[in-house]
Amino acid sequence: MIKRLKVVKPSPQTAIEILVSDYLAQQRSRGLSPRTTALTANVLERTFLPWCAAEHIQATEQLTQRVLDRFGADLLNRDLARESTRTYTRTVGTFVHWAQADGAVEAKLRMHQPKPEKKLIETLSREEVTKLEDAAVTERDKVIIRLLADSGVRLGELLGLRSTDLIEQGRERYVKVNGKGARQRLVPVAPALYQRLRRLAARGHDRIFVTVRRSPRTREYEPLAARSVQNMLRFTAEAAGLGRHVHPHLFRHSYATWALRKGMNPLQLHNTWFRRCRHGRAVAADLRPETRRSGKATTSVPVRNKDLPRDALSEGAHESRNSTRSGQVQPRACGAWLGR
């Protein structure tokens, strides 16, 4: 017997679902990065809305402080990392704040965040970086490891480099990177590393870092994916015998520590490289006057201001104030400690 199929009409959206949809449209209209909007949509549509449906919360009037507290407690009971829970609560809190400003939610609500875990920030020594570079199989992988270690760029910034991003200004050599928030900056690199980048760029591809083999689908060399670099670093760390997990952002932490120990102005390091990075905020916390006077550490970064020369702090602070007021990045001041 053949059963007739019935057309099932979709259930109408609840008021909270409509509000979330409007908020996501507002996020996309702001021109935020696809990764940011995807993360926001994932938290609200796959976590917050299903929880509201399970709790029979449909109207915006049902959003109360007790409801948000129950949602936060439910996240803590799940098998999530502490930082993941903080990301979820921060995203929902931003949504609630927008709903209040829009007038959709009248009650004064606040999404509480769990306290962050205070962990020691791991870094790679220069000897370990050299071991990784020596253990890499191809020249492309060696250059990736050296560039991550000697420039502090993010993985996405590295993968987006093109031949036109290699810049020469007199005796100085830079790479132009597109950072978070569509902010461009010039990052100084050593001449030897610059020449290695030039040789990779001379192959004529759209991006500097591409796959080793042609794609079976397009018959072209594809831009290197982030997952490929992560896997390469893991395999290279095993071949080098480091016995630890190596990921791209670890090089960024290591670069900040190495640059401070080499005598780079810590304020300029924060303003130019790490303003939008958690590690940069940790470095900035150690620059507070009350921290220097009391001698108490506010973070677990293994490098402190007391480890730096006195003239590097005084003269460097004056240079950083000048660069901050003008709104311009002053990369030339960073070249002295690159070992030219």
In short:
The chain is mostly helical. The chain has helices spanning 15-29, 34-54, 65-77, 82-102, 126-135, 139-151, 155-159, 191-201, 226-240, 248-261, 266-272, 278-285, 289-294, 310-326, and strands spanning 166-169, 172-178, 184-188.
Structural notes for this entry:
- By secondary structure, this protein is mainly alpha-helical.
- It is globular.
- It contains 14 helices and three strands.
- The protein starts with 14 loop residues before the first helix and ends in a 14-residue tail after the last helix.
- It folds into two domains: 15-102, Orthogonal Bundle (DNA polymerase, domain 1), CATH 1.10.150; 126-335, Intergrase catalytic core (hpI Integrase, Chain A).
- It has a three-stranded antiparallel sheet with strand order 1-2-3, covered by helices on one side.
- A hairpin with a 5-residue loop joins strand 2 (172-178) and strand 3 (184-188).
Instruction: State the strand order across the main sheet.
Output: 1-2-3
Instruction: From the 3D structure, determine the CATH topology of the largest domain.
Output: hpI Integrase, Chain A
The general outline is globular
Domain count: the total is: 2
The counted number of beta strands is 3
Radius of gyration: 24 Å
Strand content: under 5%
The assigned CATH architecture of the largest domain is: Orthogonal Bundle
User: Could you name the CATH class of the largest domain?
Assistant: Mainly Alpha
